[in-house]
Design brief:
The chain has nine helices and no strands. It has 197 residues and is mainly α. The termini are far apart.
């Protein structure tokens, strides 16, 4: 991404954060964003399809930054940048509370889950190269979905849980999943449940 594109996206992201401090994200329109960012509407549409695309890609951009920071800080044991994402959200409390009450948050979480799945897949490949690729994909989807579920619960409960509690729970659960991957497979019967025709 060239510097101009990064600057424009950065300004739009800052405008979203600024506007979202004082109002529900659903009430923020593209016109509000471009005015606050001091960019043209045509510039916005040169980068994003619509408002939902902007929201999703902005959330994914935040996740990417958090993942890069986690790797730089030597947190390679964490498959996902849970601590960084959680503390970033907690550090922007007014925005997070307004976002948590909005339909826009679901758009952001859906896009974020897809990005987290890719991040988890990459880190699982590095951490567990002997695990078959399809099993790694399943685990990546499981871990990404679990973290997004935690974020959704946290946001719906007005971020009352301390971020460290959420991070610790995620690390324990992730360790259990990774431990299960390295254990010999359990021999369960491979049959349909009785109620399935």
């Amino acid at each position: 991404m060239d510097q101009r594109v990064a600057r424009t996206r950065g300004r739009l992201g800052q405008a979203l954060m600024q506007l979202g401090q004082g109002q529900d994200l659903d009430s923020i329109r593209i016109g509000d964003l471009v005015r606050a960012a001091d960019v043209g509407r045509s510039t916005f549409y040169a980068h994003f399809e619509d408002r939902d695309d902007f929201l999703g890609r902005s959330f994914c951009g935040m996740i990417d930054i958090c993942d890069a920071l986690a790797r730089r800080e030597g947190l390679a044991a964490d498959i996902l940048p849970v601590a960084h994402v959680t503390h970033h959200i907690a550090g922007n409390l007014a925005f997070a509370r307004n976002a948590g009450r909005s339909r826009a948050m679901e758009v952001m979480l859906a896009a974020g889950e897809q990005r987290l799945r890719l991040i988890a897949g990459t880190h699982l490949e590095e951490a567990l190269p002997r695990v078959p690729p399809e099993e790694r994909r399943q685990v990546a989807a499981f871990l990404a979905g679990a973290f997004v579920g935690q974020l959704r619960l946290w946001l719906h409960n007005d971020l009352r849980t301390p971020p460290g509690t959420l991070v610790a729970a995620n690390r324990r659960l992730t360790a259990g999943v990774l431990g299960a991957l390295q254990a010999p497979p359990a021999h369960l019967p491979d049959r349909r449940p009785a109620h399935v025709p």
